From TrEMBL:
This is Transglycosylase-like protein with SLT domain. It comes from Cereibacter changlensis. Gene3D superfamilies: 1.10.530.10. Pfam families: SLT (PF01464). Signal peptide: none annotated.
Amino acid sequence: MRWDFRPEAEIWTQKTLLAVAENDPQLTMTVPSDIETWCPGYPEASVEERRAFWSGILSALAKHESTWNPLASGGGGRWIGLTQIAPGTARAHGCDATSTGALKDGGANLTCAVEIVAKQVSRDQMVAGNGRFGLGRDWAPFRNANKRADMAAWTRVQPYCQQKGGLRG
């Protein structure tokens, strides 16, 4: 994951993968219409590789939202943690972590982020589209073309996003 240099990386990755697995019907069983931009090998990927993609995209998002700082607080204290979730947004999405303190726990923040991602991807059948759909509904970095390109460039070269052998055309 993009946060692999952080001491918390292993637990963040485990928590995110577990949350994605709990949302398999909305995430890993879906092939978003814009997936080619983000993960060219996704349509033929295994469930484990698809879970890795969703975890990976959140690790890329966390770079732009908090520079991987679980204690980050933005917008005058309105947005909290790794993926900058407002407590009200967490409550609206049925997350377990709904307080400022709880959202500063990296694993809890990421688990909540997966809940949000599952709802928005299921709703739009897109990762982000032009930046206003899927993850872009809740996270501003997806609405910024340069940041969206950075995140897509990172995810698309990961091993779990590589196309399998065979001719394309």
